[in-house]
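pasting for the record
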Amino acid sequence: MQASGRQTRIALAELEALLTSIFQSHGTSPEVAGILARNCAGAQRDGALSHGVFRIPGYLSTLKSGWVNGQAVPQVEDVAPGFVSVDAGNGFAQPALEAAHTLMLKKARANGIAMLAIRNSHHFAALWPDVEPFAREGMVALAFVNSMACVVPFGGSRPLFGTNPISFAAPRAGGDPLVFDLATSAMAHGDVQIAAREGKSLPRGCGVDADGKATTDPVAVLNGGALLPFGGHKGSALSMMVELLAAALTGGNFSFEFDWSPYPGAKTPWTGELVIVIDPSRGAGHDFAKRAETLVQEMEWSGQTRQPGDRRYQHRAEANELGVAIDEQELDHLRELAGIE
């Protein structure tokens, strides 16, 4: 979808219904359609445009290719007191996470900690929506997911790792949870795609072209080039950690292990995800959220005026009052896809 630059507003419920209709008409079950629609609409609402409606063409292209099973029913396995495993059935990771959500909370509250290993799954969305709901239940949560090989490890010469994001969420007494979601690459792949679409350059140090030479051209990065890890060897080490946690530990594919070449149009990485949920009351009693607030106050005193998640919450509040901001041309295209005149 090409953006025109002119913005309009749409109610969140209307956008979710529109996206649900699109997903269903392109081969997903009603349950999967609703989950994916809420995820994309929520990202758009919160200003995370690289993971909002921008992702719809990639989803639809992947579904059309037959690479992913839009009808998959996740199989939840209760394998140990603090361990849940889910076979996503070559479907999307979000339905697998939702299927295990209640059991994860139950185990975390009973044992103080619970781990969820999702395998045989496709994750094509922002990672922070996977952990924020747990923080709103009073839990501390971390998530790790690997993606397709598009990042050159430090000192390497070819793409091996994915952008491999890490997400964290924690409750605080004075406001919304602290939530961050960061790629271990110098830039998120979706942001590179948006830069290419808008004809913008990348910051220096983000990527290389097909010859391994440094470039600020997003098109060169996407067409045979690769991203670099953030922070050199430090980001590369974290990316390796994510591969081990999200793929080796879950039973999912490493970022370099799957081959989607027989499925033209496939966009979604077929990998794994690990989610860890901790009940902080087992460590600090019921004072964790207050302790978190103490830290936030000290961070603000030191001059850090914006905390992790604040910008998303600001966009969310604005969208709840005025409607979700969306490009007019993108909205028209979505309505066309949904068969709305």
